[in-house]
Amino acid sequence: MPKVGMQPIRRQQLIDATLEAINELGLAEASISQIAKRAGVSTGIISHYFKDKHGLIFATMQYLLAQLETAVAQALSQTEASPKARLMAIVRGNFSPSQINQAAMKTWLAFWSVSLYQPDLHELQQVNEQWLYSSLKHEFCKCLDEKQAEDAALGLAALIDGFWLRGALSQTPLMIDETIRICEQYIDHKLAY
Amino acid sequence: MPKVGMQPIRRQQLIDATLEAINELGLAEASISQIAKRAGVSTGIISHYFKDKHGLIFATMQYLLAQLETAVAQALSQTEASPKARLMAIVRGNFSPSQINQAAMKTWLAFWSVSLYQPDLHELQQVNEQWLYSSLKHEFCKCLDEKQAEDAALGLAALIDGFWLRGALSQTPLMIDETIRICEQYIDHKLAY
Amino acid sequence: MPKVGMQPIRRQQLIDATLEAINELGLAEASISQIAKRAGVSTGIISHYFKDKHGLIFATMQYLLAQLETAVAQALSQTEASPKARLMAIVRGNFSPSQINQAAMKTWLAFWSVSLYQPDLHELQQVNEQWLYSSLKHEFCKCLDEKQAEDAALGLAALIDGFWLRGALSQTPLMIDETIRICEQYIDHKLAY
Amino acid sequence: MPKVGMQPIRRQQLIDATLEAINELGLAEASISQIAKRAGVSTGIISHYFKDKHGLIFATMQYLLAQLETAVAQALSQTEASPKARLMAIVRGNFSPSQINQAAMKTWLAFWSVSLYQPDLHELQQVNEQWLYSSLKHEFCKCLDEKQAEDAALGLAALIDGFWLRGALSQTPLMIDETIRICEQYIDHKLAY
DNA sequence: AATGAATGAGTCTTCATTCAT
DNA sequence: AATGAATGAAGACTCATTCAT
């Protein structure tokens, strides 16, 4: 039943189906037909809305990134202005429910892996990585000199990514409270200088 | 001219070619024929030595794991017995040259990604992860009570993996000295309790 | 804003776009969407005016044939009544600007090629061929006996088609003056009997 | 039943099947699977021997060209040295049985048509065209001054191609005797200067 | 032991066509 | 009259695997 103005609806529908397929089958097995089946549409429609499979994959990664940014922005907006509070908000944003469910983490991991061979995906990933690092450094700079702030930001970024990676790989729900507490200890330790 | 006793030679030759192909093309594009071309053999030979492609991939991951274990064991064998020294040895082992070159890191990342959908690969990865965690916890226990040791081990493991992941994704050589120094600060901080 | 009486305008618009697409892409790549894009309309419109793609292709070939007939008729109308003058007019008509531009010749060649497998296109082509042959023979008959006239008509028709084909294939502008002179020599030679 | 040294056999087998398919269905409908079916092999084998479909098409056109060259060379080898005899041999070579059967002519026409959009096919066609023209001019030069020889060669080449084209399009067997006689008259007329 | 010929399932993509709006 | 959403079949191509030699 063709209709007008379906573009945003169909696009999101297909992105959701892509996430679903990657979660269940892995990126390697997430074929066009599997995605179309999950979206309840025909395969041809994908080229209609995304030009080709790569366009869909790219749009899906963009969507995940936007979600992460939203989660962090939201956490930041609900916190006080102290550096520690803001650093903790960034941490909590990165471990918010929209990010640490298995489906999202598995998809991230898959994207990271392929991004090493696809320049446009790699750029998305790099921008995101830089953004996290800069945000952390910016807060640490309020309390530390630049060199120390850089070290602290690097360490905290690695800590976040590391927990994140281990969560994705462990296939058991991430222990968020513990994770956040360890990050907090790290922040406290760095800010104590 | 067929020879006898080719098995170990051919196997290693094919594993090397696999690593090479994954490094250059990515796991998704590392086809049997690409691997065979790099090894200078015919495609049919792979089934002869590894049964099928999956067997080759599995063996390659085992090989990488063995390399990591060797690197850590070697670092440990050359150090004194103090907990800090041993923890640092583990850190250095994880960031030894055999582990932090781009090819190895890209391959690891690819393996991790697919391991989520392939039980036997996942098991390899889990064993490795547990082994790192246990080693770290064992050392921390010498100075801390169990709960604190667990936290410290979790944190340090995440830190290592996080640096590792960021190194793989950044496509620029990992800054080892800085990385190791940040890990050392973390260890010092934890052991200072 | 739909209008009435759009039929002839839209039809010609689509035929022009078809010629344009075939010229640029070749018949094989001249898809409905490419044609629609060039015409500045949606794809659906084609079925409205031509039933389907084949209807559009057929109409386009008809249009080219009509153009050829017009060119020859016009040349004939502007000449004196002598057989040689009329034969030369037919020659000039066949090499008139509307026929020997690259776009037209490439399209003709494409049509001829597919006409071998599509009865209705083939009929168009055959009618045209017969018409040229008959016209030539009719003029030669005024000076020669029937057998000789047939030979002369066959030869001149072949000469015209041959130059025409070579012009289409050479992708450089046809040297019209030379071509027409060679045809004239042929006519003179035949009429000299 | 895989065997060794199948390359030349399979290649010719596939080229023959391609000619068959083009003859029966037209180039546009001569799909990989249709060709494979006619060759009695699987579709995958084509990429094994010709890389892709275009490689097969190219090889097929090369094969037809080689056949034409052989036919002309053979006709030339069996004739005396006089210019007229040699010119007639070239004509007869171009209208030899291997060239004027419907299948070959239809395939030629299809190739010419697509060659306008595919540089490598176009080059093959251009080389062939030049070769015919040069051969004719070379013979005419023995009796005529250069300008006259060029005209004569151009005319005869057009005559040959024109008959050839009309034969392809008429879908009835070409009347060879008549064709050759008309060409002979043209040669006689030109050499009579 | 090693080759490479051969298969055929599976993937992405393109495209003419239909149809609700 | 005109749009463009949607379909689904068909196309070329890739690839892991098998097997006779």
Largest interface, C-beta closer than 8 angstroms, per-chain residues: A-B, 41 and 41 residues
* Average pLDDT of chain A: 94
Tell me the β content of chain A.
under 5%
CATH class of the largest domain in chain A: Mainly Alpha
Assembly category: homotetramer
Order of helices and strands of chain A: HHHHHHHHHH
Inertia-based shape of chain A: elongated
Q: By CATH's scheme, which homologous superfamily of the largest domain in chain A applies?
A: Tetracycline Repressor, domain 2
Coarse structural class of chain A:
mainly alpha
Which topology of the largest domain in chain A does CATH recognise? Tetracycline Repressor, domain 2
The helix fraction of chain A, in percent, is over 70%
Describe this structure in words.
The first copy, chain A, is mostly helical. The first copy, chain A, folds into 2 domains: 1-51, Homeodomain-like (Arc Repressor Mutant, subunit A); 60-191, Tetracycline Repressor, domain 2, CATH 1.10.357. The first copy, chain A, is built from 10 helices and no strands. The longest helix of chain A has 25 residues, at 53-77. Chain A is elongated. The C-D interface holds C 25-29, 106, 109-110, 112-117, 122, 125-126, 129, 151, 154-155, 157-166, 168-171, 178, 181-182, 185-186, 189 and D 25-29, 106, 109-110, 112-117, 122, 125-126, 129, 151, 154-155, 157-166, 168-171, 178, 181-182, 185-186, 189. The structure holds a DNA duplex (21 and 21 nucleotides).
